[in-house]
């Protein structure tokens, strides 16, 4: 028997022949062997059809050609899309450059006018740019938010509250205490720290240049400022959460489990130096930046931290869900950008919550607390209730409230270990 495979027919061709090995293929066929060969050929043909998935080789070739055509079309679309995207980016970049050049003359003229108004007195210019302008930005934004916090109006702001039922309205006595601390931090901590910064910037020699930096260089500086703040703030913040430092320093900031904008710099003076001020000042001091870059950066930093603490997820503004969750849970979301939290795994709990789904820029007028509501709570007892049962001091605790406190803490333990840890630190 001679067996061969035909590429054209797509099956085995089998010759059953008589004679000894070496006889030519045209030897007379044996009928029985031919019938057996026919059965074997059909068997192998069916087997090949099942293995290949195609009824014939022609269909297989047709499918291969179809895949190849699809690949070519996809490659063409991708290449053309890349070319169009590059062309558009070049056009947009060109237009932005033209706009910046046009506006650059405007800002350059304004800067020179300000420079000559102060008669080149560098210390006065530095105080104006690094202290006065950022402070005006901070208090202007937070002034509007405090009106909403105290009065509950206007509703187009309060309807975007993240922690529903909290600070509605805010405790005015607690707010007054926070304002006192914030003003003390600004006047007696932040402003004095500008003095050594001034001499460092003066040593660089570029801060008070009569020519403003280019827009592209400012973007480079802004990227470095942001990364520097993320690194320094994340690690100093995590350090502040060590039990000893938390109890004596960082606990003050976490008195607000549902924060408002102005408490962004409500902190112990040591924390305000190490976590709030130095991470923001370090970038410009490393880069030797122009006072214009410093002014914009300080203003953005204060505005961003105010948004992170404001308690409202407002349309078109950066999402405050990340840091608001930190104030709620205490052991998650330590950073600003969330980059180091992701690398260190300190946002795993946050990523499993509805707050993570809401952590995006709101592009509609519907509050995300309505479109993505929290799941129903399993426990009726919260840390705030436990704190109220506990009283303002250990001496106020009654036997009945002690029993209720133990029961409440037992429920908190299985619901949220982080809250229990905070409660012990607050009362310890």
Automatic annotation (TrEMBL):
One of its GO terms (molecular function) is iron ion binding. It holds the Pfam family FA_hydroxylase. InterPro entries: Fatty_acid_hydroxylase, Sterol_Desaturase_Related. It comes from the Eukaryota. Residues 224-346 form the Fatty acid hydroxylase domain. Its main location: membrane. Keywords: Membrane, Transmembrane, Transmembrane helix. GO terms for cellular component: membrane. One of its GO terms (biological process) is lipid biosynthetic process. The chain crosses the membrane at residues 73-96, 123-148, 178-200, 215-235. It is found in: Membrane. This is Fatty acid hydroxylase domain containing 2. It comes from Apteryx owenii.
């Amino acid at each position: 028997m001679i067996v061969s495979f035909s590429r054209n027919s797509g099956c085995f061709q089998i010759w059953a022949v008589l004679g000894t090995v070496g006889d030519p293929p045209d030897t007379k066929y044996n009928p029985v062997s031919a019938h057996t060969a026919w059965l074997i050929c059909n068997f192998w043909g069916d087997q090949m059809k099942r293995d290949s998935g195609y009824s014939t080789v022609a269909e297989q070739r047709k499918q291969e050609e179809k895949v190849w055509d699809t690949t070519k079309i996809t490659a063409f679309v991708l290449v053309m899309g890349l070319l169009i995207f590059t062309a558009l980016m070049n056009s947009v970049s060109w237009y932005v450059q033209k706009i910046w050049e046009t506006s650059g003359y405007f800002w350059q003229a304004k800067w020179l006018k300000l420079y000559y108004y102060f008669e080149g007195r560098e210390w006065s210019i530095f105080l104006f740019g690094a202290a006065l302008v950022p402070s005006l930005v901070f208090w202007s934004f937070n002034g509007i938010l405090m009106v909403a916090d105290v009065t509950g109006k206007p509703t187009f702001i309060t309807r975007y509250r993240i922690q529903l039922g909290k600070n509605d309205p805010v405790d005015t006595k607690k707010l007054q205490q926070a304002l006192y601390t914030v003003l003390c931090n600004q006047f007696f901590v932040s402003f004095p720290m500008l003095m050594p910064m001034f001499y460092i910037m003066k040593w660089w020699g570029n801060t008070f240049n009569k020519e403003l930096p280019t827009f592209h260089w400012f973007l480079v500086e802004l990227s470095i400022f942001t990364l520097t703040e993320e690194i320094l703030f994340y690690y100093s913040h995590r350090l502040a959460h060590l039990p000893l430092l938390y109890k004596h320093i960082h606990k003050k900031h976490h008195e607000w489990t549902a924060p408002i904008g102005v408490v962004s710099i409500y902190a112990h003076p040591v924390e305000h130096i190490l976590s709030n001020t130095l991470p923001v000042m370090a970038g410009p001091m490393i880069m030797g930046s122009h006072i214009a870059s410093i002014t914009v950066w300080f203003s953005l930093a204060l505005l961003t931290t105010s948004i992170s603490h404001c308690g409202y997820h407002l349309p078109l503004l950066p999402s405050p869900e990340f840091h608001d969750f930190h104030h709620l849970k205490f052991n998650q979301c330590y950073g600003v950008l969330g980059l180091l939290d992701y690398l260190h795994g300190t946002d795993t709990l946050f990523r499993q919550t509805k707050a993570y789904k809401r952590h995006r820029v709101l592009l509609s007028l519907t509050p995300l607390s309505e479109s993505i509501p929290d799941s129903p709570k399993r426990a009726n007892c919260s840390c705030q209730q436990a704190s109220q049962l506990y009283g303002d001091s250990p001496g106020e605790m009654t036997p009945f409230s002690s029993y209720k406190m133990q029961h409440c803490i037992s429920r908190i333990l299985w619901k949220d270990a982080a809250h229990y840890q905070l409660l012990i630190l607050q009362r310890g």
